[in-house]
Amino acid sequence: MLKQPKLHLPTPRERPEEEKVAYKSGEVMHDKNSVGKERPWRKRKLENIRYAEYLKILEFKKHHKVHDCAEEIKYKITADGEFKLYQVWFCKSRLCPLCNWRRAMKAGKQLELILEEALKRQPKSRFLFLTLTIRNSVDREQLKADLAKMGRAIYKLMRYKKVSKNLLGYVRSTEITVNQDGSYHLHMHLLVMVTPTYFKDSSNYIPQTEWTKLWQKAMKLDYTPIVNVEVVKPNQAKGKSSLKASALETAKYQTKSADYMTDDDDWNLQVIGDLEFALRGSRQISFAGLLKEVRKDLQLDDMANGDLVHTDGASEEIQAKVQIAVAKFDFQKMNYFWS
Ligand SMILES: [Zn+2]
User: Fold this and answer.
1) Alpha helices in the chain (DSSP H)
2) For residue 89, how far is its CA from the centre of ligand 1 (angstroms)?
3) How far is the CA of 102 from the centre of ligand 1 (A)?
């Protein structure tokens, strides 16, 4: 395990006019969601500090920036005493455990809005949840090349006649997990929106074996890849095969911080170095067809680099004077405290 990182003072940032509220000053900050569950600020910040330290060792200049991520959290206090997340500065680095937590929340909410609207426009449409995989990638060069190749192959796959004739749109996300031998398991999740005619007969319906063959062809593989396809149950609000569950699966983290927050520093450094290299310039989530159109119409902002404060998509109402509560991370005591 690494030693506690040294105290690093961030540069002061812009402060808008505000009225600061002394709220439990000096006490440990607690932020609970609507069902009373503690939000994982501290856990994520501790991981973020380790991540910044690894970046420093790997000589990434951005380590300062990453270290400052969500060092200060500002809440707006509403008229009825409710605390609403108001201002936080996020580093937006690709593997930042804090930013990825916010991104997954935001992507999940955005997808929900997009799917809801798409269903309004095509009420009879159905969804498939596809997971496309390839053999493990052994190193960072191959991982990067495989990532790009899979993206192109999906584009091709969706243009095959049997697929495209019932296709309305899709959303695609990438997930990379690390195997015990240090190789990488790359897979892509696709939520595919189809017309009801997809289920009409065998000239329209694509069984799992056929999806596998099409994926093998699109990827030009000399082996049979693993392809999983599930039909999303319509009118099912919850459960494994519901649209919501599939949307959340699609929107979840691209990488798991547990894969590079192990007890083995050398392992973590290797994985972070590899993933930083492989993921640079790649897109975490992308949309096509009707889902792309709807996303544009709803004017949703960038999932990866947009606002990570208001992850629920609600816009901020303008107030002349706001009551603010501020929590700051204490790098000695390793926790957030109200200031
Ligand atoms: Zn961050």
Assistant:
1) 41-57, 63-67, 97-121, 140-157, 161-164, 208-219, 243-251, 265-279, 290-297
2) 8
3) 9
